[in-house]
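Supplementary material to the annual report.
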Amino acid sequence: MRYLMLVLDTPDDPGDTEATTPIEKWAEKVYGSGAGIVGDRLRPQEDSVGVRVRRGEVLVTDGPFTETKESIAGFDVIEAADLDDAVRIASEHPMAFGGAIELRPFWTLGLDKHDDKNDDKNDKD
Amino acid sequence: MPDAAGPAVGRAVEDAFREEWGRVLAAVARSTGDLDLAEDVTSEAFATALRTWARDGIPERPGAWLTTTARRHATDRLRRRVVERDKTAASARLAERVEASPAAEADPAADPVGEAVTDALTEAWSAESADEDLLALVFACCHPALPLEGRVALTLRSLTGMTTAQVARAFLVPEATMAQRLVRVKKRIRTTGISFRVPPPQLRRERVSAVLAVLYVLFTEGYDAWAEPAGNRDGTTDGTAEARRRLADDAVRLARLVARLLPDEPEAQGLLALVLLQHARRDARVGPDGVVRTLGEQDRSLWRRPEIDEGIAVLDHVLAGRRPGPYQVQAAIAALHSDPPSPSETDWVEILGLYDVLVDMTGSPVVRLNRAVALAEVAGPEAALAAVDAIDDTTPGDRRSAAGGGGSLGEYHLLPAVRADLLRRLGRTDEAAREYRRALEIVDREGDRTLLERRLADLA
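Predicted assembly:
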């Protein structure tokens, strides 16, 4: 089962940043084990660019879209055996201590036509 | 065994239903990962039992028989599903994925159900694997990623085999509402990827707490019904109260099961002791006049002594392990209340000490309120009142921690009710009356309302 891990900055709930493993260690473990597919840190929200099409016109906007304090600092796509496995991986991420991780299960439409056998079983609704 | 026909078979199936529903469901759920399918084939297996046991006799191990039968039904259904999907999917595939590679078009008939699932469905039945399956089902139903209401309903439905209508009745909601709640929670199990597996060791502690919390909510739901009159105000009964009260029996049974499945979790034993000790007092909670009795007012001859003894035995055993937790401490408090033959012999100093421990563990304002009640017995109403007021002052700060520890006092009628009792004991009648009225504004249980009304009337 595939999950997107949204790594969130939560300035309103800073948590404790002590007792965390460095991100390099985490990445080494998760990507080394094959659970990690792709991931990176993202440039801050002020560097984001919005794209939308309205009445046939492409509208490009600069800066953040919403004034929320929480922001996405990074992401990882992981392949986990199940939710508990994903929770385990997420709970070891250093930002789970200082920020928060949001796990979003993939719908797995398979539009990119990658031939991962597991994907087929994931969603049957 | 042709003599097993008729009522004996009906009874055997009924017994098996009570004992084995959860196990059979758990075995299929774990092999297939599909709870809906598991529910369907478990019902089907019981229907099959009713037919064939009358003809062939009652099997020696009903649980094994039912599990094997349910698994066979599951295999049949999965095969049928694949055939049907092929029929409809074939045309869809032709239209949508003409350019897909031949590898992606592999013939599904070659492995119709999936090897892993087939293997799991043909696995031999054993008592150990049945327990393992059951534990996995309990953890899945109580997964903290599910909404609490859904967890409670699903746990009840999955582990006791209660129908949706019965669960709805017990929780006082329309059947359609409950059906929707169950559909949603099962869908969330699928979409979030919750599997029927015992959680990994790193997550075990939190997940055990989540299971125990669900069981205690279930118990409280049923035990609360014992603090309400069994019938309506006009003396009629419609069976709703009994249905709700039975939840407490189910919760005790499930607590016993979980305590057996998790022998190394002291809090699981603590919860069992706690619910046994509380449940033992059920018959004394409401007097013949329909008014709630406080612990001190209860007729102790109505307490079920064997259940108290069992609760104390479970508690003593787990306390000897010296790994305390909130359920064990609460059980210890309940034991101190249950032990003395009369309320005047209650060891309030010991109880107060245990509440101090519990406050440290949970930080819950509800616990602090209960501590204040114990303090009144040790240090008098004046000191207790100061302690209650101190809770009030710090409530905003406590609310945040209460999110994990449970309980905020915002709309809790016991806060003004306790204050009123203390003011009454101090002879401050006018203030006491004001607090009773405040409590009456927010109380929601009929039995509690009557108690408050009587106390208010006694003031005059």
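The helical segments of chain A are 23-32, 83-91, 94-98, 119-122.
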